[in-house]
DNA sequence: CTCACATTCTATCGTTCGCTTGATTGTTGG
DNA sequence: CCAACAATCAAGCGAACGATAGAATGTGAG
């Protein structure tokens, strides 16, 4: 009765609103960004986002109810992951609106991001070809745990914080292509800046690992 | 100070959350659906969505602040419109998550939509070709006001309610392709069902006018 | 200049939301 | 079976949100 009397339209709008609401909180977006890297348990997510455990749990549950996440139990852990690649599309759409229409974001993007990386990013297609040709060093600047959940085959994992210390691991002869969590992850920008300052040829991969994976490109573990 | 101390990441997440929040309400989604058809003033939008005027105004203003809408003044009217085609992408992304992951929506889509239109919708590309070849009648089943804001060139406007009464306007010889507001607008589904019941060959255009326009295809006024 | 109309603003009220705390459930390893 | 740990649940709080009504602003027509 509720369904038919309120009309199909109302049901759809309410359901859609629940999905949007599920993403409409800074902490949730932080959780989603981390979950886009791969499956994680509640405690790990709470730690990495700086949230109270119970609080993180509640956010995760409500995103699960809304259909953004799915969860499975593994021993005493509850492992959450993105329900679907379409969740990435949602985040992308929000990002595109933000970069073109939100004053705060436009400012950050132009002042912070562009100054560190004036060049166009390397496309996935281009990187794939140059990997086959062996003309690049691929650098994954995410934390080790995220690297362990999947990375571009052949990539070297050097978290940004360790970069200066570990420059020796990177040959100067080839161009370095760095990537991290996604289009708005600052690590890759910072890495490219640091590498250039050290005399490397360095560029950034477009987006991050989640998009690489969603594109159906190979992921190593 | 606020900006740099909280970190770039936090700023981005907050801005993104504001955008998601701006869409996270059933009334707002209804407003967006109507605005996707074209520019409208506050009173018209309030009427068509059944909202209190002041309430509609407030929703519109907060969506404007978030960057989903833009507004211009024309005489005593304030005309709102979608800020950007990327807002359509956002709605699409929400819809895709809903159809694959939200129980209520899956039920509606399979029970209501599929039963009325088992066939695949006509793609925009296909319709464009068949329009040139003259082998279809294009039917716009939206209300006259929306038709007036732009429609597929050559389309005949027959709001769903008037369809039975005006079947004479539609030649039986050609296949009819009906469209309305978007992928979840029920009018086109109902029109196709009614036409088939009346012995027509009828199909639905994928999505609706907003996507046609966003694709860069010609729109008549 | 005034009137009519479109819209926004202001104040208010009830509801929902997010976060914290402490208790509870569920699972593994000893 | 018990100890240790992961996660959820339950209650309570303050803040933010959505709706409404009435006042105020802005604009054009006469």
Written account of the structure:
- Chain A folds into 2 domains: 83 residues, Arc Repressor Mutant, subunit A (Orthogonal Bundle), CATH 1.10.10.10; 107 residues, Rhodanese-like domain (Oxidized Rhodanese, domain 1).
- With 221 residues, chain A is of the alpha/beta class.
- In chain A, helix 1 packs across helix 4, helix 3 packs across helix 4 and helix 5 packs across helix 6.
- Chain A starts with a helix and ends in a 7-residue tail after the last helix.
- The first copy, chain A, is globular and about 65 Å long.
- At the A-B interface, helix 1, helix 2, helix 5 and helix 6 of A face helix 2, helix 3, helix 6 and helix 7 of B.
- The first copy, chain A, binds a DNA duplex (30 and 30 nucleotides) through helix 4.
CATH class of the largest domain in chain A: Alpha Beta
Low-confidence stretches of chain A: 1-5
| Protein chains sharing the most extensive interface | A-B, 50 and 49 residues
Strand order of the largest sheet of chain A: 5-4-6-7
Q: Level of helix content of chain A? A: 40-55%
Basic shape of chain A? globular
Order of helices and strands of chain A: HHEHHEEHHHEHEEHEH
Give the total of beta strands of chain A.
7
Oligomer: homodimer
The radius of gyration over CA of chain A amounts to: 19 Å
Approximately how much beta-strand content do the residues of chain A carry? 15-25%
């Amino acid at each position: 009765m509720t369904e038919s009397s309120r009309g199909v339209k109302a049901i759809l709008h309410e359901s859609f609103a629940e999905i949007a609401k599920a993403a409409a909180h800074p902490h949730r977006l932080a959780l989603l960004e981390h979950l886009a890297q791969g499956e994680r348990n509640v405690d790990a997510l709470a730690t990495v986002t700086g949230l109270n455990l119970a609080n993180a749990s509640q956010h995760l549950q409500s995103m699960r109810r809304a259909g953004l996440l799915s969860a499975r139990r593994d021993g005493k852990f509850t492992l959450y992951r993105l329900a679907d690649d379409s969740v990435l599309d949602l985040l992308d759409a929000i990002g595109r609106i933000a970069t073109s229409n939100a004053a705060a974001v436009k400012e950050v993007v132009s002042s912070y991001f562009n100054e560190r990386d004036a060049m166009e990013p390397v496309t996935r297609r281009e990187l794939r070809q140059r990997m086959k040709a062996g003309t690049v060093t691929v650098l994954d600047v995410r934390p080790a745990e995220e690297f362990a959940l999947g990375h571009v085959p052949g990539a070297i994992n050097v978290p940004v914080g360790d970069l200066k210390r570990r420059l020796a691991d990177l040959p100067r002869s080839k161009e370095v292509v760095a990537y991290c969590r996604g289009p708005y992850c600052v690590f890759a920008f910072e890495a490219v800046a640091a590498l250039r300052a050290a005399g490397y040829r360095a560029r950034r991969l477009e987006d991050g690992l989640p998009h690489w994976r969603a594109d159906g490109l190979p992921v190593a573990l």
